[in-house]
Amino acid sequence: MGQTLTEKILSDHLVEGELEPGEEIGIEIDQVLTQDTTGTLVWLQFEALGLEEVQTELAAQYCDHQTYQFDFKNTDDHRFLRSAAGTFGAHFSRPGNGICHNVHKENFAAPGKTMLGSDSHTPTPGGLGELAIGSGGLDVAVAMGGGAYYIDMPEVVNVRLEGELPEWATAKDVILEMLRRLSVKGGVGKVLEYTGPGVETLSVPERTTITNMGTELGATSSIFPTDEKTKDYLARQGREDAFEEVGPDEDAEYHDEIVVDLSELEPLIAEPSMPDNVVPVREAAGQDVEQVMIGSCTNGGYEDILPAAKMLEGREIDKKTEMIVAPGSKQASEMLARDGWAAELMAAGVNFSESTCGACIGIGHVPASDSVSLRTFNRNFEGRSGLEDDNVYLCSPEVAAAAALAGEIVDPRDLADELGDLDAPGFELPDAYDGSKADLIAPDEAVDDGLVKGPNIGDVPLKDPLDSKLEGPTLLKMEDNITTDHIIPATQDILMYRSNIPKLSEFTLSRVDESFADRALESDGGFLVAGENYGQGSSREHAALCPMFLGVEGVLAQSFARIHKANLFNFGLLPLEIDEDTYAKIEQGDDIEIVDDVAEAVRSGQEEFTIRVNDDWEATGHLDASAREREILADGGKLSHTKKQYEQE
Ligand code: F3S
Fold first, then answer.
1. Does 403 contact ligand 1 (Cβ within 6 A)?
2. Strands (E), 425-573
């Protein structure tokens, strides 16, 4: 039986397991990517592993999320990241040089490679045939140290593209159509592999718009085969050497197939406040638009901005509308400036932002209250723009530019009819991507100033191996559905301490009980007790790391959210499931003792643990963990576990 492209790349990199959907596999990672909000912890963890040099073929550190440096802590983070990249051998992209996925696509993405990145849109380079997966920072740190990345083997779905895009329909409409059909959950546990005759009609930047937003479908990754278009794009970037032909076998078998006829697509738009709320633009037409933004890792390329610039050339945007272009990379900004398009856009009434995520995460350009903002971004979750009850629509640059001209949502085809002289701009690549690389610092160009840690950068705590005896008080009893936001709030004033674990830990569970952190530190050990679905929400590792720093030994809950449970293993906290009666009976302050020889029991695969409460009554806790998770837990978490492995080698 033939293999899919995904299976081929995975087989080439397989170090453990078999390629059976749902089975855990370990793969070798070629490239890693981190950005500024996740990178500081990644490097602190890498430092804690005791390694001197990055072991992957390539590592790249970008500064894109908080480039405005509104607090010295951001600037300190960036300086630390520069010094860490230089010390350990990673490329460093200065703040303002662009969004990680754009800069990576331009400079490093390569067919047939595996990549791991601590950002959710890491799969973007799938448009060049690279299998790229987003993960937690700790996984990235371990991969940089040469460790395998473990993941459940995804199902591979064939997305067959047929036909060719008509005028005014774009790659953004392809992925919006996928979202319309499959919803934001449609890709979970899957790799979406694009095939069919429609592939060769799309350039690499169009493909990366599609692979980028595979994340909104929940997909593990999205990937295209490579062809002449890939070779051509790499040549224009001056990287033809990176080309390799990769693709599925002709008789490859897929788990499922979806057919998209490109020729049937029309301009689409995602209405507030979900990326899968997709309708044809003509159905949303007529609403006033106060803000238009072109940018982000989805549509921030030179080629994405060019169609809008052509549409706006010699015209002015509507008087009640503001329009901002935030190029995805400085390469794009510089080229737009050199060839005069930046001036055309400015003359039309457009303002330029530095190349940053910025408004995509609510940093700057917050929409006015009770107004419509049209953006070429990938997410419009309520409140993400920085305004709680916002009205953010997602669309292509063409639809965005049409709205800026009309001052309202309009199907660009209708606007073209009305204006009479507005041609479909098409999608073209520049002859050569000739931006400077001054802001991209290679490891051999690094400033040799050691690791520079400002006052807000602390060390990462390492946990000792699990004790044979675990005992301590019930530090906090919580209800059902405690989220990672309850455990560590993600507000700006708190998250700026993400590289300072002692300080950040002071906020642990403060939304549930303000005195928690003090009590936990004082008691030097203890347990958390919770109802159903403990740790739901984001994959935030700090929600396990901070309780660990405060000395929490384990969590007894009726059930755990999947990712948080994995994080509890990764940071050495024992997650035991308890039944409803036990939960009801345990009170805050009760003394808990795990009667078994815990370290031994965890390693040996024991599933039932005896919990003695107040030396008075006993209950059973259930440990559901794979052999690998048990070893990690017993060694004191993934960092200690990995460090031990390195020391044994
Ligand atoms: Fe940045 Fe938004 Fe993309 S935060 S990485 S531009 S999804």
1. no
2. 440-441, 470-477, 526-530, 552-557
Summarize the confidence of residues 542-551 as an average pLDDT: 96
Cβ of residue 311 lying under 6 Å from some atom of ligand 1: no
Average pLDDT for the chain: 96
Supply the pLDDT for residue 407: 98
CA 88 – CA 86 distance, rounded (Å): 6
ipTM of the complex: 0.98
Mean pLDDT of 409-438: 97
CA of 529 to the centre of ligand 1 (A): 35
Is the pLDDT score of 330 beyond 90?
A: yes
- CB of 99 within 6 A of ligand 1: the answer is yes
DSSP assignment string, 198-263:
TGGGS-HHHHHHHHHGGGGGTBSEEE----HHHHHHHHHTT-GGG-------TTB--SEEEEEEGG
Partners of 194 in beta bridges: 159
What's the pLDDT score for residue 321? 98
Query: What confidence tier does 76 reach under pLDDT thresholds 50, 70, 90?
Result: very high
The token duo for 489 is: 């709030």
Report how far residue 515's alpha carbon sits from residue 518's, in angstroms, rounded to the nearest whole number.
6
The pLDDT tens digits of the residues spanning 107-135 come to 999 999 999 999 999 999 999 999 999 99
The ligand 1 atom at the shortest distance from the C-alpha of residue 35 is 5
Whether the CB-CB separation of 148 and 241 falls below 8 Å is answered with no
Name the residue with the closest Cα to ligand 1, atom 3.
297
What distance in angstroms lies between residue 324's CA and the mean position of ligand 1's atoms?
A: 16
Q: Which residues pair with 575 in a beta bridge?
A: 555
Rounded (10°) CA dihedral 190, 193, 196, 199: 130
Give mean pLDDT, residues 311-323: 98
Tell whether ligand 1 has an atom less than 6 A from the beta carbon of residue 361.
Answer: yes
Closest-CA residue, ligand 1 atom 4, reads 357
Determine the residue of 97, 99, 495 to mutate for testing ligand 1's pocket, defined as the one with the most ligand atoms within 8 A of the Cβ atom.
Answer: 99
Ligand 1 touching residue 213 (CB < 6 A)? no
Confidence of residue 491 (pLDDT cuts 50, 70, 90): confident
Task: Considering only residues 587 and 538, tell me which one the structure prediction assigns the higher pLDDT.
Answer: 587
pLDDT at residue 166 is higher than 80? yes
Residue nearest to atom 2 of ligand 1 (CA): 360
Question: Which residues neighbour 389 within 8 Å (Cβ) at sequence distance 6 or greater?
Answer: 370, 382, 383
Task: Give the Å distance between the CA of 519 and the centre of ligand 1.
Answer: 38
Tell me what percent of the residues of the chain surpass a pLDDT of 70.
Answer: 100
The domains located in the chain, with CATH, are: 5-264 (3.30.499.10), 272-419 (3.30.499.10), 470-648 (3.20.19.10)
Percentages (nearest 5) of helix, strand, coil residues in the chain = 35, 20, 45
The answer to whether the CB of 296 is under 6 A from ligand 1 is: yes
Q: Which helix (H) or strand (E) holds 523?
A: helix 516-523
Q: How far is the CA of 357 from the centre of ligand 1 (A)?
A: 5
Which ligand 1 atom is nearest residue 295's CA?
6
- Of all residues in the chain, the percent with pLDDT exceeding 90 is 90
Instruction: Return d(Cα 575, Cα 148) in angstroms, integer.
Output: 24
Does the beta carbon of 119 sit less than 6 angstroms from any atom of ligand 1?
yes
Q: And the tokens for 588?
A: 């805050």
| Probe residue for ligand 1, chosen from 215, 325, 360 as the CB with the greatest number of ligand atoms within 8 Å | 360
User: Residue holding tokens 């479909």?
Assistant: 424
**CA-closest candidate to residue 546, choices 490, 609, 627:** 490
